[in-house]
């Protein structure tokens, strides 16, 4: 929002208190949160180094961008607005018009609800000014609000697109700017020939037209089915038949139920795209392994492309599926893969990193196996509560997009599914449409846990015993696979081993994975330092307790088979209720007896199949006694239990719901039917819209009354002048 270049006095304290909607424009939680969310999207999606907020008002967006290390500035013609900028932001905000020539160039200019306050001629000057000083312009101007008295130039989107096109700036049709307003647009400077620009517009138009045609064909088919059924078996008097729309069968003509093919030609394989958010290569953690194995299983029946982060270290190849690299939050790096796919499977963060996914024609599967909220709170627990709350607010704001884009959701356990059902209900996804489609809601969310690969190969040479300094060939080794995250309890494991070592000097505890393969997580808080300090304090470091960086993926199973007992201990937090610990599947594949803390889904697996023993949270003494008992067991004593568990926990078994969905993907029935979101908040927004409309009507009535009074005053002045003339 901003002021007209002709009338800066209009945008005074009264305007900001009453002219910006039902909530006064002031430094309050609502406006700060709104501009914080916009800044977060700008930084994530566009990564600008310098930004100008043209029409900055009180400088909230400038402040939010500078908090994210962006060189941000603002201008606004309103003296009142600049006077209300925070003191530490004043050096970066100036009182000037958006028609004044700018004194420098910017990576991005943001102009939100400004130019409708200006005359058409002034708007043209402002657009030309922006285009001279940036290559990207994030622009929003209300196309319908004629009630606002200060709106002098309310125009449809094509009006503004024409103005920008005169300067070779065109609408980036692949960028979703709806985090600003529903009509917001990103204009980009384009130097390529006009045919290329037209091609992009036609591509976007074609996809929207095709989806609309498919939906119309589906409706026509449903109507024809209704007519045929009613003709064959008329409904009894007083009743009405209900039929659900026919699911869209992608790749098939809308007027056919099957495609005839000559001879025994195989049908084309449906293109499926998986987007991994973790690195993939010779060093992989659980999330990367999950997407590698999901691609492997799906590739047996589909044309699979696996997109991996560009920071994945070395060249990665597969004979079974295509591998491409992408750059986080850079839509062009993955756009081609998205356009080709009919089904896209991605983790929750990807919905935020690539908001344009919501508008693609593919069916979207959101992989929610990692309950990020339950991990994010302990990861930030060392911050003061205000900083932690800020991080939580930003994180949850980013993650909320996932609830609105999915056609199908997957998680790792029935516990997680219960949690996801609550999240989906809170965000309006459990509604009449999804319930009628399937009262069990299994079509909306299914369980696809972590699996294990049945690989019986062993290393040609020892990797651990007699190889690691301090670990002898005859020592008994306890292994802690994976990271030392804040919600886990490696300290109790070290204390337990200190008790065991007094009786069993041949026992060793090894933490072989303390440095994540993904360098983006290097600064994440863990127990690494505390674990080293405790082992040193107890005199165990590099004598009984050992730490390594990470083990190569291809060596991980042979490495585990050299160990004797596995451990996975966690703290008593709500993360444990939701967790599905992939390291436990690795232990099962290696047939290692497991000591685990009670409370998570994998502990239930251990108890169900008799694969180890459970201990209470924080019970180092109980863990020590359990270690001693398991070390006395002959190797292979639980072979039958492990064999039965392994048959039921393969990746092929785990993937069955997802494979079935990919064979018959369907758009979620509510995504095209209703405005998604919490019913409570949607109702509140509707009430606010109603209040805004009423205030607009009052303002319009007041404006009309003012004009009437001005006319009366003019008539009176003419009468006075006529009287004096007499």
In words, what does this structure look like?
- With 726 residues, the protein is an alpha/beta fold.
- The chain folds into 4 domains: 8-191, Rossmann fold (3-Layer(aba) Sandwich); 271-447, Rossmann fold (3-Layer(aba) Sandwich), CATH 3.40.50.2000; 476-649, Rossmann fold, CATH 3.40.50.2000; 678-726.
- Helices cover 42% and strands 12% of the residues.
- The protein has 26 helices and 20 strands.
- Strands 3-2-1-4-5-7-6 form a 7-stranded mixed sheet. It has a 7-stranded parallel sheet with strand order 10-9-8-11-12-13-14, sandwiched between helices. Strands 17-16-15-18-19-20 form a 6-stranded parallel sheet, sandwiched between helices.
- α21 (601-609) links the parallel β19 (594-597) and β20 (612-615).
- α2 (29-46) crosses α3 (60-66) and α16 (490-501) runs parallel beside α17 (528-537).
- The chain is elongated and about 125 Å long.
- It starts with 12 loop residues before the first helix and ends with a helix.
Estimate the helix proportion, in percent.
40-55%
Assign the CATH topology of the largest domain: Rossmann fold
- Global Rg: 31 Å
Low-confidence spans: pLDDT under 50, at least 5 residues? 1-6, 234-266
Outline type: elongated
Number of strands: 20
Q: Could you tell me the strand content as a percent range?
A: 5-15%
- Count of domain modules: 4
Report the mean per-residue pLDDT as an integer. Answer: 86
| Largest sheet composition | 7 strands, mixed
CATH class of the largest domain: Alpha Beta
CATH architectural group of the largest domain: 3-Layer(aba) Sandwich
What is the CATH homology-level superfamily of the largest domain?
Answer: Vaccinia Virus protein VP39
How many H/I helical runs?
26
Give the termini separation.
Answer: 51 Å
The strand line-up of the biggest sheet is: 3-2-1-4-5-7-6
